[in-house]
Structure formats: C-alpha cells, structure tokens
Amino acid sequence: MNPVAPAAEVADLVSRRPAGQSLQAPFYVDEEFFTLDIEAVFARHWLFVAAEAELPEPGDYVTVTLGSYSVIVVRDDDEGVRAFHNVCRHRGARILDEGRGSVGNIVCGYHRWTYGVDGRLLHAESQAPGFAPSCFSLRSVHARTVAGLVFICLAEEPPADFDEVAARIEPYLAPHNLAKAKVATQIDLVEHGNWKPTMENNRECYHCTGPPELQTCYFPIYGYAEQDVPPALRPAYERFQRADADARATYESLGLPYAAIEGLDTRATGFRIQREPLDLAGESFTPDGTAACTRLLADFPTARLGRRSFHLQPNAWFHFLADHAITFAVIPLGPDRTLVRTTWLVHADAVEGLDYDLDTLTKVWKATNEQDAVFVNRYVTRLKAHLEQKR
User: Fold this and answer.
1) 290 and 243: one domain?
2) Could you tell me if 2 and 85 lie in one domain?
C-alpha cells in the first residue's frame, strides 16, 4: 500500500464495506489510515480532553498529543480555560513536554520566549527594532467548557452544532456540580490496538455481559426488547421494570432529565445521553451497588440516582452518579496503540480513607478497562495476522 493512501482508495474501501459490518482490516492497523484518522476525524471534531477539576488553579495545564498535533490546555488568570498549539512561535519547538503541571508563564526552553497563560508573547530577547510581540502570540485552539468538562477542536471552523449539543446535554450534567469536584485518581491505560475497536466496544456493547465486576451493578437485559427477553432473564427484567419506575418517579420529583437523546450518525457531533437505574442498591458502580463515596457530589437527597451515561464521538464516554463521576478519554497514539485515560471525580471536600476508599471507588472500571484492553488487542492481532497472510 502507498505511504499515504489516495482518497479514491479510501473511498473504495469504504464503499465496499458490507452494511452493518466492520471496516476492512487496513483501517485498523495501517499507518496511512491512522494518519487519515487524525486529519479526517480528530483534527475536525470536538474532542473531550479533561475535566475542569484537572485544572483547579490558574496556570494548571494538561497537554494532549494527537498525531503531529500537540495542544496545551490551561487555566488562565481569569479562571477561564484556553487551548493553544504547543509550538513556540520562534523556531517551532515544542514548549511543554510534560503531560500536566503548573506554570506562572509558558516558557520555551529553546530560546526562552515567554508567553502568558492567555497566550500573549511577553518576552523575546534580542529582537530587531520594530518587532511586534502582539503578532507572535501562541496559536489558539478552540476550547469550550460544558458543566465541568473541557472540549477542544483543532479545526479552523469547528462543527457548528456543538452549541446545540451543549445546550441539550448541560441540563443532564449540571446537577452533578462537576466544575467544583476534585480528582480522586486518574489511570492511564495504553491499549495495544487501534482506537476504533476501543470506541466500538463502548458503543455496541455486545461484550458488556463479559466483565463480571461491571455486571454486578448492571441489569443483564441491555438491548433486549420486552418480547425478546429469554425466560432465564425474565426475573431480572421484571426487577429492572420496578427499579425503572421508581427511578423515573425520583428523577421527576427532583427535576432531573432522564430521557434518552441520541444523535450518533445524523450530525457532526455525535452523542447519546440518558439517565437510568442501576441494579442492587442502585447507587454506584460497586460490588453491591452502594455508594462508593459517602460525600455526594451535590446536594442530592438520595444516593439512589442510578447512572447518567453520556457518549460523545469520536473519543469519550462518561458516567455520572450521585456519589462520583467517571470520565473516559480515548487518545490515539498510533495505528496499534491507544491511550484510555480514566478519571474518577468526587466532591471537593471528600476525604480519602474517610469518605471513600480508592480501591472500592475504582475497582469496577479498572477491571473492566483492563479486560477491554485484552479484547482490543486480540481483535487487532487477528487483523494483523489476516493481512500478513494476504501479503
């Protein structure tokens, strides 16, 4: 295959894909298709990159690398969140090498060009007369915050539908007060596979009955229409029906929106959001379903609010519960390497060891992520073997 696949070749491969089936193997394993993924998907759409809780103070930053792009996401002195290309305007050097940290100013280590956290060039030594610092600010990247979540878009003209998406999802997210939460912990897991199976696993969920830790608090009837529920699952379905009726009554009494909204393949910013009950105690992702943190995220009168699930294409999903929230950011590192960054958020005043135990808080999704990583690796390994046989 050519170093960079021509657009016509890509279009041909897409057109020959049987409806309802996966893309052909090269899309999951070849370098040229990874490059196209970055340019055609990740450089053109809104991406989730961090929770605001990861940037609690002015000068706090995270960096995100997507193919040849590196982006600084930073809290400015006015408490806003900004994003800039991580490229010095002098010699094009990368400025910040760490994944996260805190700065007073943003200083390039090459020639000490110094920028404020608002991106303005503050200092550039030994410049010619007439040099205009205002012409050499850091290049901005579009950044938005929605109810405590930070999104960026690398495109010069971002998808115009994000305002509408934000308006629709914010009422679901805002009650959890995420902008005032804190990070309990964050785990980076590198899956040895392409980013597409990672996102497909989350979206199609055929394998969701596999992870035993996750199944303890999920009703095992996901995807079944009532008439298709097998006899063995009928008791679980009836238990779900009772829990769902109770949950809807609670949601309505508290003014919490819960109806599913889905627009995955009909718009630029594909998303799905819904609030629904959990099994057992119905409070959290724990072995018995009870709250993992006794200090709730917000002033909820009950911890039994189930889960508010949110999926955003192309790179994120989220779970909001009464006691904590979990964010999942998917960052492609290469054709066969994908970073899954999972962040657990709790009330700002929650105390580890007193209000929550970290192992209990993270057990379900830590185990589920690790199991999913195995599935992704198996899938991509098989595709590579298939291609090698053909070659």
Assistant:
1) yes
2) no
